[in-house]
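Record format v2
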Amino acid sequence: MAEFLLDHALLLLLGSPLAGGAALALVGHRRFAPEVNAGFSALTFAAAALLVARVIDGGPLAALEAQLFVDSLNVFLVALTAFVAMTTSLFSRPYMRIEREHGRVSAAGMRLYHSMYQLFSFTMLLVLVTNNLGVMWVAMEAATLTTVLLVALYRTHASLEAAWKYFILCGVGIAQALFGTILVYFAAEKVIGPGVGALLWTQLEAVKGELAPSVMSIAFVFLLVGYGTKVGLVPLHNWLPDAHAEGPTPISAVLSGLLLNVALYALIRFKVLVDGTLDEPFAGPLLMGFGLASVAVAAFFLSRQRDIKRMFAYSSIEHMGLVTFAFGMGGPVASFAGLLHMTVHSLTKSAIFFAVGHAAQKSGTQAMDRIRGLMQVSPTVGWGLMLGTVAILGMPPFGVFASEFLILTTAMAEHAWAAPILLVSLGVSFAAIFGKVQPMVFGDPSAARLPHRPALVPVFAHLAIVLSLGLYIPPYLADWYRQAARLIG
Amino acid sequence: MGAALLAKFGPQLINLLAAVLLLLAFAMLTQRRILSLINLFAAQGLVLAMSTALVAALTGQAHLYLSAAVTFALKVLLLPWILHRLIRRLNVKWDVETLINIPTTMLVGIVLVILAFNLAAPIAQLAGTVTRAGLGIALASVLLAFLMMITRSKAVPQVIGFLAMENGLFFAATATVYGMPMVVELGVALDVLVAALILGIFLFEIRERFDSVDTRHLERLQER
């Protein structure tokens, strides 16, 4: 039994959210729907844990005639994605019940929400484990499609507008990525021959030295624009703050914590191919440029925000920029730091969104100047938000400090010109975010009691992991990051 | 006899169809009426299906017949039917307003076509397909559809622009590599269909909210 499960962990990983999507469409808005949702997410996480055990034991593995593929790079993201999807489903139980009782979501809306939540998990996991670059594109587009109706779940003017913008901008962006994928296939077909084989990443990786450099470089530009739109890189980031601010908070948490990572993962896979094809550095400088622009622009937009979710959305742009910059620099240390930062940002930002969600529900508003004195109304929400903020701002001893420190020191050693830009941006964002969160947490209260107990276990669980990663990275985890960093190069 | 004729005129016929595709892209750019816009989109789908079938006949790639059939069903029948129903239900048959006047749009379009041909030239040289001249045209139609999306203020033409962009991409795949592997093509077709359905739902919600489907209502969310 245990053997069977281990062998089929990969299929279970994809099957569980897919079945969950169908089951929750049938369950509809019944009282226990949130529990079913959490149950399927927990099953998916269990499958991810089995898969991790399998990969640690037996190294990279493939399934379905090499259509699915797991190595040390994506297995770590699979585990992270399944974990955050599970904790977010726990958070969304009381959160969505309260939204329903406040009349912001209809019964049909609840059915849509739960079913799409599972399908969204499915599409993200498919992007991560597929070996076929064409299927990767299809799954990425499907991830947009599953979330676009969720962003518009509240049916308000602002949420409709945000969803329309999200759809059109990401649709146009991802069309560029399809063109890039076609060009990659074109280059590969010359070497490998036509057929599905020429789209399999493992096969492309084996022949990357023989691919036509001119085609691959044009392809990478299109892919960067396409998937970069989904990562939220400046200047393609316009959809991101709106979609985060107007959708339900659990969706903001998974968009920020997971979708951005997954889109960046797609970009990294192509970077590995392009680096192998071209002799001179090409993908690296492009990624560094976009990353640096994102960090700088987002930092200066932070101080102008009035909506709490919008502000943390800009903070996500900033951090994704930082990770992109790290991967652009390349090398074992920077790639290690990039992977670590992906992990800690994803955990911290989703924890912040959980706390923000309950804070906004208690105060009945997302406007920051009207949220006051959280500490007095609910110390746990207040501390959750405060600790999360301190963590995301890169204060030691949290894990974000460790990864930002590594990125900054590498930048100083290798690209000294970029270090001042990074330092100033981080300073500006510190002042902006801390200055706004501090009066929300302390001060005189303006909030009310909620009908359901808020789910704060996920918040503190995430923050505890981030804290422990800052203090001590276990040797097997460090090994794992190192292996993945070696893959990225 | 038939095979010889096909081999002789086939490639030229494909180039002709490619030219028609580009012409239709320009026609869409200038068209003011939504109904005609949908018909132009259906015509583009038909040209696409014909050229795919022709490439299939020329090269003997069996899976291209299937993708020609899928293209025909989806882009000539299903999507135009959905769009026709949509505008009848939404009652928006009147003229399309453009944000920039049409002659200017045309001039920008010509610049885009030159750009596309320049960008495609080095890649097309590497291609060994009979249809390689089509790559520039494919890229040009993608850019023209993109231009249409950003110059229209109504939601339905933006949707048609989005779908036309996918037409261009599909033609690019046929022209350079005789189509993507079947799994991917079916996946893309499914995504396009779902996207069109979701957009349909959206349009109703936008209309319900604002009594019109002008996306200029959707400009409130901006950085102040």
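Chain A touches chain B through 47 residues (CB under 8 Å).
Chain A has a mean pLDDT of 90.
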